[in-house]
């Protein structure tokens, strides 16, 4: 997803495609359900996660997906256990499909490699610019003020199509998508380039870019890209991913998400994740 990667994604999260792997088939009847459910640990909440994918997940437990995992484990009354693997090629095959863990906390809705739970938040790509600069009022990649500007973009992500359509690619600076963030950090590199003037604007998956800005870049402004008039869409619904066929486990997680949605929202808001309504047309109103 990037994270989670998204990791995620969609974004860094949605563009991740693991090679190969065996999909578990869901067959009719109680015995099949019992068989697939037996793969889920009954003694721990086993999470597949990237060890160096802040602000989403980190071996230290500082990411917002780590905090959601702690919440879910506590509601299940189980200890939290991690299988760590970089969110890049082979992530699902070498973690979830290998039965080393039972859930990916952040995964884009609709990805065929996993069985998705109900989504627990919706977010979008964001435009990041200097707060007091000439681009501070830009809300769409079609804005004429971006003409001839140097825009940072993660290669292969959906906003790149919009940059190309609007004639922004010749001066754009590309950053790698499929990376091991223990050794390379495209999001941090892009924001650093923006602050020193090497680029004029940055486009990142919101759950990555916005929390990074909130934590370390107070001079920058984040604007969710909600007004693009043509496809591809730039908002995505984020779920938890489980093994194909694990319908019992999926339903259990759906119930946990529903009952703990307010607490999940609070974790995401505290991190700075841009939360949108389900249609991606505006901000999600806080529950009271």
Topology (SSEs and partners):
Elements: H1 30-37, E1 45-49, E2 52-53, E3 57-58, H2 64-76, E4 80-84, H3 91-94, E5 103-108, E6 115-116, E7 121-130, E8 151-154, H4 159-165, E9 173-175, H5 186-196, E10 201-205, H6 206-216, E11 220-224, E12 235-242, H7 247-259, H8 261-271
Parallel strand pairs: 1-4, 1-5, 8-9, 8-10
Antiparallel strand pairs: 2-3, 5-12, 6-12, 7-10, 7-11, 7-12
Helix pairs in contact: 2-8
Question: How does this model look, in words?
Answer:
This protein is 27% helix and 20% strand. The chain is an alpha/beta fold and 288 residues long. The chain has two domains: 2-121 and 234-271, Periplasmic binding protein-like II (D-Maltodextrin-Binding Protein, domain 2), CATH 3.40.190; 123-224, Periplasmic binding protein-like II (D-Maltodextrin-Binding Protein, domain 2, 3-Layer(aba) Sandwich), CATH 3.40.190.10. Strands 1, 4, 5, 6, 7, 8, 9, 10, 11 and 12 form a ten-stranded mixed beta sheet that branches. Strands 2-3 form a two-stranded antiparallel sheet. Helix 2 packs antiparallel against helix 8. It starts with 29 loop residues before the first helix and ends in a 17-residue tail after the last helix. Residues 1-36 have low confidence and may be disordered.
State the order of secondary-structure elements, H for helix, E for strand. Answer: HEEEHEHEEEEHEHEHEEHH
- CATH superfamily of the largest domain, by name, is Periplasmic binding protein-like II
Mean pLDDT: 87
Low-confidence sequence ranges: 1-36
Helix content: 25-40%
Q: What CATH architecture label of the largest domain applies? A: 3-Layer(aba) Sandwich
- Overall tally of domains: 2
| Number of E strands | 12
SSE-based structural type: alpha/beta
- CATH domain topology of the largest domain: D-Maltodextrin-Binding Protein, domain 2
Shape: elongated
* Strand portion: 15-25%
């Amino acid at each position: 997803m990037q994270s989670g990667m998204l990791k995620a994604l969609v974004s860094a999260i949605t563009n991740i495609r693991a090679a190969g792997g065996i999909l578990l088939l869901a067959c009719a009847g109680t015995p099949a359900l019992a068989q697939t459910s037996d793969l889920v640990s009954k003694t721990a909440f086993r999470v597949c996660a990237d060890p160096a994918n802040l602000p989403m997940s980190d071996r230290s437990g500082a990411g917002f997906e780590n905090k959601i995992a702690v919440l879910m484990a506590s509601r299940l009354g189980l200890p939290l256990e991690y299988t760590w693997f970089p969110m890049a090629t082979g992530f699902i095959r070498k973690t979830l499909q290998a039965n080393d863990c039972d859930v990916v906390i952040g995964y884009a809705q609709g990805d065929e490699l996993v069985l998705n739970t109900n989504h627990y938040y919706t977010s979008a790509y964001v435009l990041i610019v200097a707060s007091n600069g000439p681009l501070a009022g830009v809300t769409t990649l079609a804005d004429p003020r971006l003409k001839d500007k140097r825009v940072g973009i993660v290669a292969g992500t959906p906003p790149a199509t919009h940059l190309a359509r609007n004639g922004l690619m010749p001066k754009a600076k590309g950053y790698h998508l499929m990376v091991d963030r223990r050794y390379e950090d495209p999001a941090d590199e892009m924001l650093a380039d923006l602050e020193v003037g090497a680029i004029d604007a940055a486009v990142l998956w919101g759950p990555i870019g916005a929390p990074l800005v909130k934590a370390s870049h107070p001079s920058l402004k984040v604007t969710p890209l909600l007004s693009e008039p043509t496809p591809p869409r730039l908002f995505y619904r984020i779920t938890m991913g489980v093994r194909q066929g694990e319908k019992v486990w999926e339903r259990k997680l759906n119930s946990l998400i529903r009952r703990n949605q307010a607490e999940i929202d609070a974790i995401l808001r505290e991190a700075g994740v841009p939360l949108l309504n389900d249609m991606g047309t505006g901000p999600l109103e806080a529950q009271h």
